[in-house]
Amino acid sequence: MITKQEVENAQEVWGQGVVHIGTLESDKTQCDSYTKSFVNERYDFDNKEVLFKPTKAAMKQFRIDKEGAISYFIGDNSKYTEDKGFALQPWTKVRFENSALILEENRALAMGNYFFTDTNGIETKVEYTFGYIKTNNGTLKIDVHHSSLPFNVVESV
Q: Domain range for residue 72?
């Protein structure tokens, strides 16, 4: 059975990875290498199509392959011209607040808000649903990643 602690650990490592990508922006080779490794370690693209719907994507908002995910994090891909590199912000911290978890033997789902802190200390709130699969070696890999900015209701007078 996947535990709450395993999901929280996976979330912590994911957040640290996103922050680290931003610290590498000035060294393109190292940034590319680390981001590819990050996506390989955190996502299950090597075994299947991953349902990846990133926050700031409108033209190609659904990414089911590794190339689309990497592009979202660091940009510079002619197939995904809207990508500017979400992880290159840079962010200084990522904090998860799980609203609900579904924990099963080899699968877990987490839904809630995560908060990305920029270099001015300002947090951006993003809604997410992540699906995790437990691999044969016991690590959790993401196979569903959906995130979006909260709906903004503007009331008319």
A: 4-148
